[in-house]
Amino acid sequence: MVEERAYWLAWSQVDRVGPVLIRRLQQHFGTLAEAWKASASQLGQVEGFGYQNVTKVTAARSQINPEQLLEQHSVKNPNFWTPADADYPRLLLEIPSPPPVLYYRGQVQLQENQGIIPMVGIVGTREPTEYGKRWTRKISTALAKHGFTVVSGMAAGIDTNAHHGCLSAGGRTLAVLGTGIDVVYPPRNLSLYEEIQKQGLVISEYPAGSKPNRVHFPQRNRIIAGLSRAVLVMEAPTKSGALITADFANEFCRDVYALPGSLDNEQALGCLGLLSKGAHVILNEGHLLEMLGAIPNLDTVVQLPLFTQEQPAPIPQLEPELAKVLQSLTSEPTSFDVVVQQAGMDAGSVSSALLQLELIGLVSQLPGMQYRRC
């Protein structure tokens, strides 16, 4: 999938085409390589591509050679994943705006990427009270000791305390930056940044050298929510980036928890607002761990009783194109490109057929644009 990897990177460099539009292109054309070859009229058929947008996109696209870009970009940014890579974080593939490029530094744990080791996001205000700091450290320490990976944004305040609490307990933590992977912000967190790389991972959707930008920080909050099975808001005022993360978590069907605080504490009013809207309350470490333990394992296999055997459902009568694509698949993962080759059809038709087969329940999609027969 080296070729497709180059096109995820190339599309990410095209102005006015963000993660949502790139995902739509991939879904519409089957691959981003096919989308790159598409004419202006074909691009105009994709939702979000108006006339002006198409004109600017086609002009920008003509200035980029995807293969050369990949080679040049990798010099300054040697370590990154795209959704075409098998190691790309599984949970991020579920959201409507997965980062087209995800840079990383530190110790990669593939079981985290596969969703086998659960990750929990911890966020909150940059100006916490002693109460907020204390409980953030207690909670992150407890999570680390029970095998959870703590995800936060390495910002001042709650984020910093979440990372420190996890690291002090010998656990793994992920820091999602709103800057390039090589830019430490705030600068006073340099030692924390270095410590996280030894014991965890630093990730960002922005290339090396990207400076702090106020627009980037709300955007990176979707990555924290997307990576996490649950998001904990420890202390936050009514206008807080932590609440943006909670909104993303709700949108992505993640559980949201909030630490209750005093009505007299402005830094707790955002948490109280979340609780009034149905967020789970954090009563203590034990109660939280019990609640998190009820989250279904992504790889749980339901065992049928030995004395019964469920008969497989008969395959319905399929249209010729659907049948041809289904015949190209086995129970083993098969890449999209191989399916296109074996089916002898164009990528757009194969993509459409796979989607229909997935809706029928005959095919399942796996990370890295791979498919298998159910």
UniProtKB/TrEMBL annotation:
One of its GO terms (biological process) is DNA-mediated transformation. Gene3D superfamilies: 3.40.50.450, Winged helix-like DNA-binding domain superfamily/Winged helix DNA-binding domain (1.10.10.10). Residues 310-369 form the DprA winged helix domain. InterPro entries: DprA (IPR003488), DprA_WH (IPR041614), DrpA_SLOG (IPR057666), RuvA_2-like (IPR010994), WH-like_DNA-bd_sf (IPR036388). It comes from the Bacteria. Belongs to the DprA/Smf family. This is DNA-processing protein DprA. It comes from Symplocastrum torsivum CPER-KK1. The gene is dprA.
